[in-house]
Design a protein that fits this description.
Elements (H helix, E strand, L loop, with lengths): L1 E4 L5 E4 L2 E9 L2 E7 L9 E2 L1 E4 L6 H13 L1 E12 L14 E12 L7 E8 L13 H13 L6 E2 L5
Length: 162
């Protein structure tokens, strides 16, 4: 949570904004193995993270892809917004509001930062087991696969899901 003090002196806890990006290239998905120093370390996950000051949520997503994988992306599209305060995710209870994007991988231009111990492209039908995927990223991937198979219009909002 972020603690803010408003003009009237009232202090409130607000939620973080994050972006997770499903990067697709040649019908494969890019996953990164999280550093052991991170929450859910040693597990595979989507590239993503917190929005910085003075950037849009799409800029945050593209930046996180580059930082965590070394890849650039194009054609970012909003897949979903996950804002359930009880969302399975951060064990520290930060209640992130997550913007899930889909983007096309363009090219590898750098190396991943310290948050990533491995970068790998997986066929969509041959992903690591769910228990080896961090947070609720397997659910986001499942939603993407469903959007493709059912030709759903994006974004898919939580209220629209069964």
């Amino acid at each position: 949570m972020i603690q803010c003090t408003f003009e009237d002196g009232v202090k409130v806890n607000l939620r973080h904004a994050t972006a997770d990006v499903i990067v697709i290239k040649d019908e494969k998905i890019l996953l990164v193995k999280r550093s052991d120093k991170l929450v859910e370390g040693g597990k595979w996950g989507l590239t993503g993270g917190y929005m910085d000051r003075d950037e849009t949520i799409a800029e945050a997503g593209a930046r996180e892809v580059l930082e965590e994988s070394g890849w650039t992306v194009k054609n970012m599209r909003l897949l979903t917004i996950r804002d359930d305060p009880n969302r399975r995710g951060d064990p520290a209870g930060r209640q992130n509001i997550d913007f899930g994007f889909v983007a096309e991988g363009v090219e590898k231009v750098g190396e991943p930062d310290w948050e990533t111990s491995e970068v790998r492209w997986f066929p969509l039908d041959d992903l690591p087991p769910r228990e080896q995927i961090a947070f609720d990223h397997a659910d986001i991937i499942d939603l993407y696969k469903r959007s493709v198979s059912e030709n759903l219009s994006l974004p898919i909002l939580a209220e629209m899901l069964p």
